Amino acid sequence: MQILFAWDAVGNDDPKAAEQIVSDFTGEPEVRARAKQMAISAWAMRETSDAWLQRLAPQWPPRRQPAVDRALLRMAVWEMTATDTPPKVVLDETIEMAKEFSTEQSAAFVNGLLDAVLKEKRALTGEAPPAEDRPIPQQPAEEQS
Fold first, then answer.
1. Which pTM value belongs to this model?
2. What average pLDDT is seen over the chain?
3. Which of 27, 53, 60, 93 is deepest in the core (most CB within 10 A)?
4. CATH number 1.10.10.10 given to 2-126
5. Do 73 and 65 touch, CB atoms closer than 8 A?
6. Average of pLDDT values for 15-27?
């Protein structure tokens, strides 16, 4: 998210900025490399993500969103559509980051928008929601005589 935020601020995918940001991360080199690759992939898909998000929330197009929300949403849309990460994990992690790093209203906004993205993705791909998200079928009431 930090890499996307930085690139959005300058308007390009500056590799030096990305290197600086990941060099500040603690952890294994593989984790830092994965974070950088995720940012590169999400940045490459930003126009598609932005168009999708703008269609779903025309009153809050990406250009009007707080920069942190924009970075979070771009990362989440990429992760929900291009990886095998369970959508619930993507939603939960993105909402938590919005609570920590963005405005008071951002978590609810991000949640609603990503939920709409997920529903559309499932409709387009024919993917069924997980069992816990499906309505419980009602048994027909027995006729009373």
1. 0.84
2. 89
3. 53
4. no
5. yes
6. 85
